[in-house]
Amino acid sequence: MNKKENFINKLRSSGLRPTRQRIEICKVLYDRKKTFHFTIDTLSKILRKKSKERISLATIYNTVYAFKNKNYLKEITLNTNKTYFDTNVTSHHHFLDENSNRLIDLKNSDVGKVKIKRKIPGKKIKSIEILVRISD
Amino acid sequence: MNKKENFINKLRSSGLRPTRQRIEICKVLYDRKKTFHFTIDTLSKILRKKSKERISLATIYNTVYAFKNKNYLKEITLNTNKTYFDTNVTSHHHFLDENSNRLIDLKNSDVGKVKIKRKIPGKKIKSIEILVRISD
DNA sequence: ACACTACTTTAGAATCATTATAAAGTAGTT
DNA sequence: AACTACTTTATAATGATTCTAAAGTAGTGT
Hints:
Number of strands of chain A: 6
Order of helices and strands of chain A: HHEHHEEEEE
Oligomer: homodimer
């Protein structure tokens, strides 16, 4: 399979061994058209359904954080008790639907330029993240 | 004391009984000039130092969430494992210093107008929060 | 193919923030 | 002083995440 090869190359090229578990996780995360927002818990449930592999929770944690370190995933900031991740690692903003607690990506073209007028001496801006809360 | 009276009135006016514990917590939170960003843990430590009252963790949690519901505190969104609160309840934005993990308030005048060009049918914008990550 | 080593996976225990419980204490009212 | 609803509290329970250490596996060299 072409896709599987791609995942294997992707993993190898960043120094991660392409194990069965990691490939299964790649399939869930990257074999889709739209950005995927998830928690460890949701990912775990999807894996249990879609994959024959029985992947332990610890491995899912390990893999997700390994992918995050390799910049294949981005951690998202919300005030919930769980940590969210995003397969869209580009700098972008979000809607948060407070009714469903779902995230929706905003393209950069969806947001006008943000001007930060204040400077902190000796500090550089690393990123600017906007969270737009919406509800019915 | 004038300040203590103020706290008592503030509490009573929102239907919260002015207990010793709540008044001590008010002193820590509101008897200061600048905005205060904190976690339950930091608040707990400050109380242990500054107050003779021995206030239980449960009460600190109860009180902080009671204050949040009365809009005396605001919950802040960061990706850390702990929940942060802010005594500045007005709509405003933050710098997050990634070296020290400290928050710095941005006045609205520090940030240019943010334009959200995309609309989600049937949904209204509740708030727009910007987090500007900075580091050395 | 075989052996070797470093990297991985795993089940289960440990940790840590937060929430729930239910008994004892207290504010405000009569 | 008595009463009732609201509070506080110690403690247990929960739930996400991290740790541990033993068993498994990929990649390399022979």
